[in-house]
Design goal:
about 290 residues, alpha/beta, eight-stranded mixed sheet, 8 strands, about 15% strand
Length: about 290
């Protein structure tokens, strides 16, 4: 079984989209033809739906959507900035732009239509439990991708399937371990695509006096980053050469989920290019495995 897993990370989903475009170019095939299961969290869930929907999108097209529509999705009016107190009293963004983009590119597709199999992470805040969405769940891809990407403090929770759901990144920013559990050990290769590793420090002198208000935004990044790193360590130990993690430090681009300035979008593209160049031989070997 060949598995693809894509991390959460907001606009930084541009990085795995570019890496996937390179894999598709080298293999001469769409990602959905190369893998038996595609798992995703948050922005990774959006990519997973785009790859597995009927008439799937090419990864190159997905990357262009991030560039073209990211600034619309992460856009706040002056009124929203004021009424939300910059995200401290209400969510930072209305979901209208996100939902419109999902409807435009996922259409009427449902999880049951996914080919190959799909696995998305969400968290049910009423039942207080992690959930994994599969083809057996009676949800549209728009509903599922919206719920998986509803990051607390960024977007409102989503009512879907009789539940109140938020971003699966609160427990699986890197959904690769969830994907591995789906294989029952029948695994040829697990490819895990990161959205850029945090490098911005939180110095002691800066944070030692922080309370709830100051920690609201940073703690979400810490949780997402920490859980992703933990999964990477575990799978590397468990699977060895069958596990391929393509991740890059964010040496130039911002680690913010919502930095859609032209300068940062260009920096994210350069981060992806550096990752592809640094792992060139490994990507070639991976493509050989995927096309056997």
């Amino acid at each position: 079984m060949r598995v693809l897993s894509i991390d959460g990370g907001g606009i930084r989903g541009l990085i795995p989209a570019r890496v996937l475009a390179e894999i598709e170019r080298r293999c001469g095939r769409r990602a959905g033809e190369l893998f038996d299961l595609v798992a995703g969290t948050s922005t990774g869930a959006i990519i997973a739906c785009a790859l597995t929907r009927p008439e799937p999108l090419a990864a190159e097209r997905i990357a262009r959507i991030y560039l073209e529509e990211g600034p619309v999705i992460f856009d706040r009016t002056l009124l929203k900035r004021i009424t939300s107190a910059d995200g401290y009293l209400d969510e930072r963004y209305d979901a209208d732009g996100l939902v419109a983009s999902l409807r435009r590119h996922l259409g009427a597709a449902r999880l049951a239509d996914a080919d190959p199999a799909i696995l998305l992470t969400v968290y049910d805040i009423e039942r207080r439990r992690a959930r994994l969405l599969r083809r057996s769940d009676d949800l549209s891809m728009v509903e599922a991708a919206h719920a998986s990407s509803a990051a607390p403090s960024y977007f409102e929770p989503v009512r879907a399937g009789g539940a109140t759901l938020v971003d699966g990144g609160v427990f699986a920013a890197n959904p690769a371990m969830c994907a591995y559990a789906e294989t029952d050990g029948d695994l040829d290769v697990l490819v895990s695509l990161g959205t850029g590793e945090h490098t911005r420090p939180l110095p002691y002198e800066q944070v030692r006096g922080w309370g709830r208000l100051e920690w609201v935004r940073p703690v979400l990044d810490v949780v997402f980053d920490g859980t992703a790193d933990a999964v990477d360590l575990q799978l590397d130990a468990l699977l060895g050469a069958r596990y391929v993690r393509l991740q890059t430090p964010l040496d130039e681009a911002s680690d913010d989920l919502d930095d859609v300035t032209p300068e940062n979008l260009a920096a994210l593209e350069r981060e992806a290019e550096r990752l592809i160049a640094a792992r060139d031989d490994e990507i070639d070997r991976l493509c050989e495995v995927l096309t056997r």
